Amino acid sequence: MGVSKMKEIKKKYYFLYKTTNLVNNKIYIGIHGTNNLDDGYLGSGYILRKAIKKYGRKNFKREILINADSYESLAKIEREIVNEDFVKKRNTYNRELGGAGGKIWTIEERKKMSISQIGHKSWNKGIPHTKETREKMKLNHADFSGEKNPMYGKPSYYKMTKEEKENWKDNIGKGNIGKIRTEEAKNRYSKAASKRMWFKNKKTGKISHTINKNDFKINHPDWERMGKK
Q: Which pTM was predicted?
């Protein structure tokens, strides 16, 4: 999740995380704000969510990489990691530069998004919480202050030297090198790759791909179809 300019309720924890698919070792980098470190959040990327639906949540693991006081303080770091080279890698689920929510929206895209939301209502609008639900919500707000915080005592990104920062970023990608994928995982990847369509933005030169037959890029004048990569 990326930075929002809208006013929001302050969360207790903000962190940059890595979610790993334990079947094929593909990863996703994002930032998240929460009041419960055990909320089970794995990421909001479209491709990642499809993978979770396919493989099941039990086959994914989230690791907290950096803690911070706000989204804003993590946004720059996320943009440095999720760069053009990162999103092109075949072992990542990230498809937007800067992270799923870190994308810079054009005026045209904002307008389309606003129009698409006209007439839509929140599914739970006007539905009161039951007593049981309220009790569960209270239990979820566990105390993770001080030494109870799993990141307690670990070095902050902002206290690292330039060399330490570079090594840390390199290690994220190298973590999966040398791991052997099963034949089942290889077949799944091959099947998914055969359905993948590649595109290039005529204006920016950005490379992107999709398996969605209704993806907007297919008929968009700014995008041209490419061959298999």
A: 0.45
